[in-house]
Amino acid sequence: MASSEVSQSRRRAAGRTAGARPSARSAAVRGDQYQYALAWRYACDAVTDPGVASISVEDPSGGHFDDVVVRRLDDSPDRYFQVKSSNSGSVAVDETWLTTPVTPAGRSPLQHFHATWQNLRQGDRPFELTLYTNRGIDNSNPILGGLRDNKDARVRVADLRSVTARSSAGQARSRWAAHLGVNEDELYAFLSDMRWVQSGPESGIREDAVALMRLAGLRSDDAAVELGIAYIRELVTDGVGPRTRDQLRDDLAARDMFAGDAELVLAVDAIDRPSSPHHAHARLDWVDRFDGAEARARYRTVDGEDWNGLFRADLQRVREQFEAYPTRRVHVTGAMRLAVNFAVGFELPDVRRWVLSTDQRRTTWRTEAQPSTEATASLSKVDVQQGEAVAVAVALSNDISDDVLDYLRDLRLPVSRLLVLTPEGGPGPSSVPDDGWLVNWVHSARDQIRASARRATGVHLFMSAPAGAALFLGHRWNTIPGPLTVYDFDGREYFPTFTFV
User: Fold this and answer.
1) Structure confidence by residue, pLDDT tens digits, 140-170
2) Average predicted confidence (pLDDT) for the chain
3) Exposed, middle or buried: residue 396 (CB in 10 Å: 0-12, 13-18, 19+)?
4) What is the pLDDT of residues 202-228, one digit of tens each?
5) Quick check: helix, strand or coil at residue 95?
6) What backbone phi and psi angles, to 5 degrees, belong to 25?
7) Residue 316, SS3?
8) Per-residue DSSP letter, 364
């Protein structure tokens, strides 16, 4: 232990009498702190988990598992926690404690647990009950010990079902069923929904919370942990009911708990639902809106109105949600084609001080990268003379100028000329070496498009480029005048997607 830590420990110890047993009031306060720490840990998790509907503490509908309740929107079970804390290691969860009534005329803990289970199973939501405790769990008991699986903290019901009546586990099974006044099948069903979690000290819960606070973009210093636990205590003392994810974020923002340098994560699952190491603060799932049985076949939407309807509304909602955070840094991940990448960048523009990043070629590209002065966009112009708009072909990966020109002429789009923007060395699969090169190239391309489109009635944008290039271009597009239509390519022909006015 470092000398400063030793000094701090000695100062804390000086305020206590050596070997003193905590008072009853002290034990109650510690128990509350333990419960609130666990609730804060799950509140931090809820900030970034879109499957969470709400978090509540001392929830009256939770029965004997009302200490922390996590309700969900998806098919995962709602979670109900009974939190039991002891100040000494001599107190254990054993069969005697479970089956002894708290008062002479009352029920035992096991009977309370079973009654809560009976009540919750009348609803239409899956659920699980968790006894979460820093007390020891009797490992000599045949059910709580040998049959409790440390992987998921559940009793292995299949094994309990198979033991003989004369075995120690079989005799315990009979005692528990008789104590509850149920048959063995109901005992199995009840135990299938019960978890028996033997936890460590409160400091361990706080450490878990710190990791989740970082993921959620929250401050993660010791003072912030204390503020978080105080927030949970306030919910209890004020009698506040369940808090949704949005309410949690609003509450935490009002308490200045978000870190100014944190990086938010936006996952856009447009054409697939890939696994990702990133814990998303917002996730958009559009997979079912696209036609096609697999990702490689998903180009066009089933409903053509989704581009400028649902998709734009979703992106704007996420932007508004992220604006509640003090940070303006967003990492973009997911599975999407070029038009969607452009739209994400357009909705989180540089002019609004957003800083974007994305994973590209096993590295991370950032819009704040130091620009490479060697990168400029080469511009060539092709007269079309069909109207007053301008078409732009961004040809970083492939030369698409002929295909775009054919499309413009076949559909008689009202375009006066086609601007073809390439790297100085020509397009190719390795033409964009890194994010610094791309930042400068996008600046150069944007300036040339702006100069050429100043008097145009609109812009039609076509791209063959890395996904990051489409994201960066959308991010920097704001100074170009006129309505913009972005096109994608389905392997055979171009088609319009987003229109930005």
Assistant:
1) 999 999 999 999 999 999 999 999 999 999 9
2) 92
3) buried
4) 999 999 999 899 888 899 999 999 999
5) helix
6) -65, -40
7) helix
8) E
How many residues make up the chain in this entry?
A: 501
C-alpha distances out from residue 390 to 303, 339, 393, 493, 501, Å: 27, 18, 10, 19, 15
User: What pairing do the DSSP bridges indicate for beta strands 68-72 and 52-57?
Assistant: antiparallel
Buried-exposed string 312-327: b where 16+ CB fall within 10 A, e elsewhere = bebbeebbebbeebeb
> What pLDDT is recorded for position 14?
42
Q: How many Cα atoms occupy the beta-carbon half-sphere of 374 within 13 Å?
A: 8
Is this structure's pTM higher than 0.85? no
- pLDDT of 75 reads 93
Torsion 22-26-32-38 (CA) sign: negative
**Pairwise CA distance, residues 86 & 411, whole Å:** 76
Tokens of 100: 């002894």
What tens digit of pLDDT does each residue of 466-494 get? 999 999 999 999 889 889 999 999 999 99
From the number of C-beta atoms within 10 Å of its C-beta (0-12, 13-18, 19+), residue 15 rates as exposed
CB 142 within 8 A of CB 174: no
Q: How far is CA 161 from CA 158, 171, 299, in A?
A: 5, 12, 52
Provide Rg for the chain, Cα atoms: 30
Place of tokens 């969900």: 72
Instruction: Provide the pLDDT confidence category of residue 23 given band limits of 50, 70 and 90.
Output: low
Taking the C-alpha atoms of residue 276 and residue 274, their distance in angstroms, rounded to an integer, is 6
- Which residues, in sequence order, are bridge partners of residue 80? 69, 129
What is the 8-class DSSP label of residue 377? E
Distance CA 332, CA 329 (A): 10
What is the reported pLDDT for 217?
Answer: 85
Structure tokens at 115: 């009654």
Tokens of 454: 């100043």
